[in-house]
Amino acid sequence: MDNEFADLEAELRQLRPRQPCSRLQSRIAEVLDAPELAAPFRPRESTSGSSSLPRAVRRVPVYTTATTWTSWKWANWGVAAALVALMTVLSISHFPPAITAADPTAAVALGAAVEAPTLRPVKAGRTIIGSRSDGVIELADGSAVERVRDYFVDTIEWRDPAGVAQLRWEVPRESVRFVGLAAY
Length: 184
Hints:
This protein is of the alpha+beta class. It has 6 helices and 5 strands, in the order αααβαβααβββ. It has a 3-stranded antiparallel sheet, with no helix packed on it. The longest helix has 22 residues. It starts with a helix and ends with a strand.
């Protein structure tokens, strides 16, 4: 496979680029010496005092687009300001419809402040769900006790005196108790 490319590489080594025509060289020289191109550049300061590089190569650009009105960046800022003004006008002119006391659900949907009903506790209870023995353990004083885990649910219920609203809160709980064992 290398032999196939060896012939091609030998041919490419023998090729020499053509010299550019005089017309192309004069056009490039005109562009490099044009004042439009020289305006946004400033000469680079050299420490040695003189440089062997051509003038066009030694120049570095001076970026003035953010400080001039000819930059496209200013157009973007103008569009952003116009959008902010438009959004402000639209938000001020669009008020939500009036909320009536007859429809409290619409008030909640619109995010308006609605007077919450006064809830009062009416029932509290504890329901035992189960109990499990963890076995007999010996305390530091030498007495034997049985550790028992009880599982239950605490329930508290609140109601509105008008009977419209009701809230029920159920909390699962676990308690550990120690039952003393008597030896006869």
